[in-house]
Amino acid sequence: MCLRVSITNSDRFPRPCQILSLVSSVHVLAEKKIMNPSHLPDFLPLSGGNNCGAAITEDDRLMIWGNFTNAQQRMEVPQQNLKPKRSDSVTNGTPAVQLPPSKPEQQLPRVLEYPGNRPRAIACGAEHILVLSSSGQLSAWGGNKHGQCGVGHSFRLANLQQIDGDWPAIERIACGQFHSAFVCSDGSLYTFGWGIWGQLGHGGRFNSNHLVPTKVNGLISKITQVACGRAHTVALTDNGRVLVCGSGSYGQMGVDEDVKKVFAFTPLPLGPLKVKFIATHYYHSICVTDENRIFEWGRNPQELKMRMFVMKKIRSAQLKNTEDPSGSPSPSTNGTTPRVNLNLPSEIPRDDLGLREIKHFLDGTIAHVACGLSHSALITTEGSLYTWGKGLDYQLGHGNKTERQEPHQVFEPNDVKWTHVTLGNNHTIGATDEGSVYAWGKNDFGQCGVITKKNGTSASEATKKFFFQARDGRRFMPNVDESQFVQKPGAIPDVRVRTLKNDAMADGVDKEEIVDRLKASDMTVVQAVSKHLCSSVEVMKLNGSSVIEEEEDTQKPKQYGGEDGPLCTTTALVHLIAGDVKRAIRMIEWLKTDSGTSDKSLLALSSLVWDVMANHEDVQSREALSAAFRHVPMSDSMRKGKQIAQLWPAVWNDERVQSTLSIDEKIAMLDSFTSASKPVIAPTIPSSSLEVSSKIRVYAQCAHAEPAVVGSPPECSTCLDEWTEKVRHTLGASL
């Protein structure tokens, strides 16, 4: 975003935009350095959970909203009218009364602090989040009761925590309700979290939870995509076959039989059809074939229970209608009572079993699919959004509660091109190619990113209330009147997701071009860029000053914290051009331990540092020279050159410098030592030297004078004596 803003407003604010552009470009170059173009993670900037949503914004922040719990909007009825159980607490003969819980709080978008590199993909479960950076770093946050965060324990994570492990580059991530999965560049699949239904796919009858990512063995082919439901997992192979495992209680396995659990990944019976996309999030799943055919399997258990309820009502009504109004059955002609035939099946039909093809008439090729609790969505290559399924909570985006059996286009807002869609429990979140984010559907917890008022009938109107009684005797009443909705797609304020347009602009940043721009820029601009690249608050307070105290007593951290700017050679070059040599040297110190920095570029940068140190007296402080000799690499030719040899005596007695050099390097420095030839404007010649000889020799570097003797060495004898004593004192017996 910053790069786009600097380009757009460069005519109005040239100097600030120049600084912003250079700072943004350095950050982009640093990200490119750590990225592996051949294994770049899939771009997924938007995700929805049960009652929540999350996004990667255009300025690379993580924004979350809604409630990251498995809570449902319902109210518990007080127990006054119920017969108390023995286990109930009683005070003065009166059973304790549980007060109804408070109304759910609508939580607006807020920032989730992310300490890692630039985020590229995000996935939401019921209570947790997975975040994948451009460099392949995986992090987790939130509820972790079943180990779904993969950090080795089952305690909740208050902050984002990195998931460490020995696996190839991660390309795709997915979150179920309480389990997670990711796909690596070599086609391997790792799962972790809740596993009681076999949804982790490790075979046998292994149904325990996994607290760390574990590789799934025995797969028939390489995996390219993975999607996680509530208690099942769907995977797609590189040859277009769909694999499923986990709970099959509601048809999640896609077969015609009633299968309760499948512990190993099993092929979906699609015959010769090849699949290109898969999706699931709760109970039902979707796949799209190469021919643009849509298949669906599984069903929300609430739908099955409602169907059973309706059939019971119909059966009861038909039985009642077959009886005579007088209450006596109508006799037949032979005097016997006729048998009543209701034409009702003896069992509830299980249409949730097997595969169902979704008929459609789309205006283009399907590019993306998503699943919610009881609704589905897809996006075409033309950027059109289609939804179908249940619509009681306005989650289809058509402005009504009508159920759709096939995909219907969402027409509002007008003239937008959809790029991403994600579905929660009963809400939908979508993003456009301009980065705008829209949400609609149920909003009890603020999962649509806005505050809404109570939706339903007024208090004066009589309404029907349905009560559900649990096994323990408690009665619950769904808060139908308290439910809150966003009936049509509405923009989420202050949330704009990162788009591929932003990435395309960043791809055009070239290192050589940035270096040329730095060289051509005014010194005040370069100094401002150097200051803004640093993340340290103390450095920002210096207002551009390059005075930074050397850390002598504090222990050096094991991991770079970003206090000197993005970890790349361009950052060090910016500091060097700005005159902040110490900060450039510290950056080189970290770059030496960075595997992504080539030796060639590091040596070229080091050569430039030594050239600056040798030719600019204003940076030749003892602290800077000591840091340079300790941390800046030297080639053999540089070590034997006169420039470095002339600088070495100034820090020769520094033990920190000595500890970094081997005996051979010390001897090489001694062999190449030459006195620096710096002009002295007004040397002082003692009169005693004139009396001894008619010819004297004056040394420019120290202003010493001595009689000129044929065959004497060109170096000053006084300086040589001092130098020899320093060497002997420092090296001791090693010399």
From TrEMBL:
Which ranges does the UniProt record give for the RCC repeats? 136-186, 187-239, 240-291, 383-434
SUPFAM superfamilies, per database record: RCC1/BLIP-II (SSF50985)
InterPro entries to which the protein is assigned, alphabetical = RCC1-like_dom, RCC1/BLIP-II, Reg_chr_condens, Ub_ligase/GEF_domain
Biased segments, Low complexity type:
325-338
Q: Which residues form the RCC1-like domain?
A: 173-455
Keywords associated with the record: Repeat
Q: Region (Disordered): which ranges? A: 76-104, 319-345
Keyword ATP-binding listed: no
> Transmembrane region positions?
none
PANTHER family per UniProt: OS09G0560450 PROTEIN (PTHR22870:SF408), REGULATOR OF CHROMOSOME CONDENSATION (PTHR22870)
Identification of the protein by name: RCC1-like domain-containing protein
To which species is this protein native?
Caenorhabditis remanei (Caenorhabditis vulgaris)
